[in-house]
Design a protein that fits this description.
Its main location: cytoplasm. With about 220 residues, the protein is an alpha/beta fold. It has a single domain, classed as Rossmann fold (3-Layer(aba) Sandwich), CATH 3.40.50.300. The chain is built from nine helices and eight strands. β3 and β4 form a beta hairpin. The longest helix has 17 residues. The mean pLDDT is about 95. The chain binds cytidine-5'-monophosphate. Cytidine-5'-monophosphate binds next to α2, α4 and α8.
Length: about 220
């Protein structure tokens, strides 16, 4: 039996990636955190494609995209993102990347660059992919589609504690503002905006734990 293709989209810090990781383990699927890819391109741009004011120069980035090689490697069960053979899994979570990623991700050149590899990974089935446009653009024929949402205060708490766990100092108000700003840019962009696919199951997990959200998603997968 062909293994399923599952799309998980939703707002920032709704737990998409950590939930997808567990579901992948339980169902024997590959997990692809597409947000990490956009963060990886942003990290590359911050290192290599800035102007005199240290801001990202998008034209420099577009002409350098062919120098970017992003790869996930399995390190003791953890998927670790490598950029040109260097582990950047911690760097992509910094505030600097979070503050710039949505502007980078709204560019057609960047989305086209990442689209092909996302689609080809799903060709054989057996994958759970999380992001913003998976059910609508990347994998419109996915077997299962979910769209996660939660209140802004709950999402702020989750991101704040996630950063603390990584040893990254953050100000709670700034974390909240970053989530609001990213969701706005992601939802309002022209190409592949963040939105619920018409056939997605919407889950508001404001008052659900991670385990409860996982159980709910698994119950739908068994039911459908
Ligand atoms: O999932 P995460 O919060 O790490 O994603 C970081 C950013 O990457 C999002 O705010 C969005 O701008 C971009 N992104 C995207 N499309 C995806 C996944 C992420 O535009 N499929």
């Amino acid at each position: 039996m062909k293994k399923p293709v599952i799309a998980i989209d939703g707002y920032s810090s709704t737990g998409k990636s950590s939930i997808s990781k567990v579901i992948a383990e339980k169902l024997g699927l590959i997990h692809l955190d597409t947000g990490a890819l956009y963060r990886g391109v942003t990290w590359f741009a911050l290192q290599n494609c800035t102007d005199a004011d240290d801001a990202i120069d998008l034209n420099k980035l577009f002409s350098s995209l062919d120098q970017i090689e992003l790869e996930f490697r399995n390190d003791h069960g953890e998927l670790v993102l490598y950029l040109n053979h260097i582990d950047i899994s911690k760097q992509i979570r910094t505030n600097e990347v979070s503050d710039n990623v949505s502007i980078v991700a709204k560019q057609k050149e960047v989305r086209d660059f990442l689209l092909h590899s996302q689609r080809s990974l799903a060709e054989k089935g057996g994958i759970i992919m999380d992001g913003r446009d998976i059910g609508t653009v990347v994998l419109p024929n996915a077997d299962y589609k979910f769209f996660l949402t939660a209140s802004i205060d709950e999402r702020t708490n989750r991101r704040y504690f996630e950063l603390a766990g990584l040893g990254i100092q953050a100000d709670r108000e700034q974390v909240k503002q970053n989530l609001i700003d990213r969701d706005k840019i992601d939802s309002e962009r022209e190409i592949a905006p963040l939105k619920q696919a018409e056939d997605a199951i919407v889950i508001d997990n404001t008052v659900l734990t991670k385990e409860e959200t996982i159980d709910l998603i698994l119950s739908y997968i068994k039911k459908i």
